[in-house]
Amino acid sequence: MAPRPEKVEVVDEVREKLASSEAVVLTEYRGMNVKAMTALRRSLRDAGGEYAVYKNTLVKRAADELGLELGTLLTGPTALAFVREGADGARPDPVAVAKALRTFAQTNDKLVLKGGLLGTRVLSADDVEALSKVAPREELLARIAGGFAAPMVQFAGLLQAIPSKFAYALQALIDAGGAAGAPGAAPAADAAPAAEAEAEAPTGTTTDEATPADEGQGQDDTPEE
Facing residues of 25 across strands? Predict the structure, then answer.
């Protein structure tokens, strides 16, 4: 039997949102009332996220079509927070959305973070928690400008190379084990020896300089707004 047109339409909608999102966080909202759900949606909108509820079977079908392994996260009443470019062209910020969800969950135990996606990588609940503790993008860039250890310098290169794909840079940070806390700043390079060497160099010569490297449809028990 062919699927009903309305279901096909929802699957198409979810597939498009999954494909266009920098990140997606899956949550359980069992027992949340309308007031709490409205407050959560508002806080996520302010953080640049979109919160929506679909039937698990339809989300799984859309995810399967994209080759995404979400089956283990699609149990119980599930809502998805999509992190993608807004209508106003605002940059997607997975960290801000993860922070908004964690902050809300701290005062409302009905909201449970289940996991999600960062790019195409499946995240556990612990990964989402770690993501929510990453410093804001601007702060990371400021710290990097002040001098960080090698893993963070590589992270800076990723940010510069793909500024519109911040999620992939965050994935690299998680892989490096830095999501829960940024490493300490590296000692500043001692410029004195280089200056002395240049001063002592014979007239008409210069010291070598290093060349920088190139760098839907809701669940049946969804609260009505």
Answer: 81, 116
Give the position of tokens 């806390």: 181
Distance CA 41, CA 90 (A): 18
Hey, what are 22's tokens?
Answer: 């920098």
C-alpha–C-alpha distance, residues 193 and 172, integer Å = 35
pTM: 0.64
**SS3 of 117, please?**
strand
User: How far is it, in rounded angstroms, from Cα 137 to Cα 166?
Assistant: 9
Q: What is the mean pLDDT of each run of 10 residues along the chain (225 residues)?
A: 80 95 94 94 92 95 93 92 76 87 94 92 90 74 57 51 50 52 42 42 42 44 45
Distance CA(125)–CA(179), nearest Å, equals: 14
CA 17 to chain centre: 15
Residue 193: CB atoms within 10 A of its CB come to 9
Q: At what angle do helices 94-107 and 125-132 cross, to 10 degrees?
A: 100
Return d(Cα 83, Cα 19) in angstroms, integer. 11
Residue type, 218: G
DSSP secondary structure of 42-69: HHHHHTTEEEEE--HHHHHHHHHHTT--
DSSP H helical segments within the chain, as ranges? 5-20, 34-46, 56-65, 94-107, 125-132, 137-146, 150-161, 166-175, 192-200
Q: How far apart are CA 58 and CA 78, in angstroms?
A: 12
Which of these, 178, 181, 54, 46, lies nearest to 104 by C-alpha position?
A: 46
